[in-house]
UniProtKB/TrEMBL annotation:
Residues 1-162, 198-371 form the TerD domain. It comes from Rhodococcus tukisamuensis. Residues 166-194 are annotated as: Disordered. This is Stress response protein SCP2. Gene3D superfamilies: sav2460 like domains. Residues 171-186 have a biased composition (Pro residues).
Length: 387
């Protein structure tokens, strides 16, 4: 068992090579500052972060699945005039704060994976940046100290205060004032044709029939998204966004079943999920849910397609979220609904397919709810189950 450290406590390191890792419930980055006795870096090369993953004696390496990168530190290779290696945690969302999540934990292990020390960083509130711990020289050896110091000035202020040079970003071009919104009009219900795919608007309804009025039976609902690319003072980057598409089956207002990454097929095999995508990288559909409408249980009246954010990141960090309806028999896209701009929600109700007058209809929804899993989203879907 690792020794538990409390804020301000220090302990001796008896190995030459250590790995600093994190246990987090929020998306965040780990970085390192190599500082002299004056608390400053010697040059920008002493700042190790995602766009500069190696420094003298320190490098970033891939962490455990779903967690941030780790810092591998070869203490014997750290230059003699570097007194401290400070490990810094920075939330991906600079507008958020550690107080919204469970306390992060910093861990120090040897290269064989044996945990030496663990520090749960309690007491954080409004901070989005914290100096978690530091490795420092003492009487010819190295020690670790639990720091847990929040930093209110922002990431750029933190590294600037440590002597890292920061280029100013160009001032953003002021946006033109928005035009007054027009009164909303009820979108017209439309029919589908494979020769002319339609671009749906929020609330729009579609008859699920092919040309000539033949009912669609084999459909695919493709859902996709892209992580927002941020351009900061230290270059462009994009965060991994772990979104999950699911289909929730309702009999009236009663939840009958959920098809998602943890259950890829419905009981009657009428709905099949393609599997989980952990990042949103790549073009096209990120996850696909195939539906055989002719085989859906007669008791199921509505199928709601939801995308949830497993790590709790909001859709403000997601770009180009869309769903598209494909006729699976001919692989032709029939309709697409795209959400422009982010929303401060952790789940998005994208669309629903529902029975009406002996057939099936599709409706684009595009409404946000707060839920990290489809099970939690299910409790908030009653408003979307009517016609």
């Amino acid at each position: 068992m690792p020794e538990q450290l409390t804020k301000g406590q220090n302990a001796t390191l008896t190995v030459d090579d250590v790995v600093v890792s994190l246990a987090l419930t929020a998306a965040a980055d780990l970085s390192a500052l190599l500082v002299t006795a004056q608390g400053k870096v010697r040059s920008d090369q002493d700042f190790v972060f995602f766009n500069q993953p190696t420094g003298p004696g320190v490098r970033l390496q891939a962490g455990a699945p779903g967690q941030s990168a780790e810092l591998a530190v070869s203490l014997g290779a750290v230059p003699a005039d570097v007194e401290q290696v400070r490990a810094v945690i920075t939330l991906d969302d600079a507008t958020s704060s550690f107080g919204r999540f469970a306390a992060p934990t910093a861990r120090v292990a040897d290269t064989a994976g044996n945990m030496l020390y663990e520090y749960r960083i309690d007491g954080l509130d409004s901070e989005s940046i914290v100096i978690a711990l530091e490795l420092y020289r003492r009487q010819g050896g190295w020690k670790v100290r639990a720091v847990g110091q929040g930093y209110a000035g922002g990431f750029a202020a933190l590294v600037t205060d440590h002597g890292v040079s920061v280029d100013d970003e160009p001032a953003p071009t002021p946006a033109a004032p928005p035009a007054p919104p027009a009164p909303p009009a009820a979108p017209a219900e439309i029919s589908l044709t494979k020769s002319r795919p339609v671009s749906l608007t929020k609330g729009q309804k579609v008859n699920l029939k092919k040309d000539g009025g033949v009912a669609l039976t084999q459909i695919r609902m493709g859902l996709g998204w892209d992580p927002v690319v941020t351009r900061g003072r230290f270059g462009a980057r994009q965060a991994n966004i772990d979104l999950d598409a699911s289909a929730l089956l309702f009999a009236g207002t009663e939840l009958a079943e959920i098809v998602y990454f943890g259950k890829l097929k419905s009981t009657d095999n009428s709905i099949v999920h393609s599997g989980d995508n952990l990042t949103g990288d790549g073009d096209g559909d990120d996850e696909v849910i195939a539906v055989d409408l002719s085989a859906v249980s007669a008791r199921v009246t509505t199928i709601v397609f939801v995308v949830t954010s497993f790590r709790g990141q909001t859709f403000e960090q997601v770009d180009n979220a869309f769903c598209r309806l494909v006729d699976a028999t001919i692989a032709a896209e029939l309709a697409r609904f795209t959400l422009k701009g982010g929303m401060p929600f952790t789940a998005m109700v994208m669309a629903k397919v529902y029975r009406q007058a002996g057939g099936w209809k599709l409706q684009a929804v595009g409404e946000g709810v707060d839920a990290k899993t489809p099970q939690k989203a299910a409790k908030q879907l009653h408003p979307f189950l009517g016609d």
